[in-house]
Specification:
Order of helices and strands: EHEEHEHHEHEHEHEEEHEEHEHEHEHE
Largest sheet: 11 strands, mixed
Bound molecules: threonylcarbamoyladenylate, magnesium ion
Number of strands: 16
Number of helices: 12
Distance between the termini: 51 Å
Radius of gyration: 20 Å
Structural class: alpha/beta
Oligomer: single chain
CATH superfamily of the largest domain: DHBP synthase
CATH architecture of the largest domain: Alpha-Beta Complex
Helix content: 25-40%
Shape: globular
Length: 348
Amino acid sequence: MMALVCPVDARNPDPQPIAEAAAIIRAGGLVAFPTETVYGLGADGLNPAAVARIFAAKERPATDPLILHVAEPEALSLLVLEVPPTAIELARRFWPGPLTLVLPKRPIVPDIVTAGLPTVAVRVPAHPVALALIRAAGTPIAAPSANRFGHTSPTTAQHVQDDLGDRIDLILDAGPTSIGVESTVLDLTRPVPTILRPGGLPRETLEAVLGPVAVQTRVAEGPQPSPGLLPKHYAPRTPMILVVGPPPQMRSVLRELVARYAAQDHRIGLLVAEEDREAIADLPVEMVALGPEGDLERVARRLYEGLRELDARGLSLIIARDFGAHGLGLAIRDRLTRASGGQVIPVG
Ligand code: TXA
Ligand code: MG
């Protein structure tokens, strides 16, 4: 049985499908819905049995906590013990938007949501469909990205159908998401605000408000502060390599790698920028250009779609290039690094 896909207007969601979706959430079911970042797999965030169905559908380990989605910043105070002034300021500026705040949780938040952690992650998504659904359901909605655990995140309803269609009740389809990478997860429980996952809200934008912000994207050993930091994540099924460095050097290394692997009978796909096209036009590869290297919004929006596109072509190797560490570049680098399971080749 595939999930029912219900088209819904992205700007002005029709009340009928929203009411149906909200009824499913209230009854403890699963609904996939669009946010501005990626599609989420939603359940009633205060109902432990419903949340357990999310983990089962995704095959997600119980050690990986979920984000609670609320419709108004005011709802934060119902979920966390105390709302610090920093959170109020960030909410005022960036909510609704791609920012998730981690704060000490109230007892009302079920342990299954936070994977037993004393903190909870909360955000207000900037998508009329998500907001309408949360309001109609009348409960915070727990929602991870609507993909199988470890796999590439979904930016269209079709991606959700491909990954989870046989395991969920309803998919609200409002077209492709606009940002294309997940929210920035910011831990406000430490002396210095710390990004646990770079995402749609750039570090520089946060620093303009908060001053210095730390980034902790990877921990060598021991317990992970954010289990999304597992090294292999967002991954296509096809093995992948990431090349990082200045564009001219990256292009020559891309050529060398293609020559070397093609000689070993690999069928190669390249995930690159428009500017790279010319330099590799003569090579025996399949190519997806995500956008101009300077247009990181476009590149981020197309990133997961590009990965899925190459993954569907039966290749034996995907080689991707990096897009720098500024602005959205940091999130793009993070996803490509994890998608490649850390197979990163630095050049230059
Ligand atoms: O943009 C997004 O954030 C999307 C849309 C659907 O809202 N959601 C999403 O959820 O990406 P998910 O479950 O795929 O990623 C949640 C991230 C994980 O890295 C998780 O470890 C982290 O947030 N997280 C959740 N609760 C946490 C907590 N209490 N402490 C630290 N990290 C937490
Ligand atoms: Mg995810």
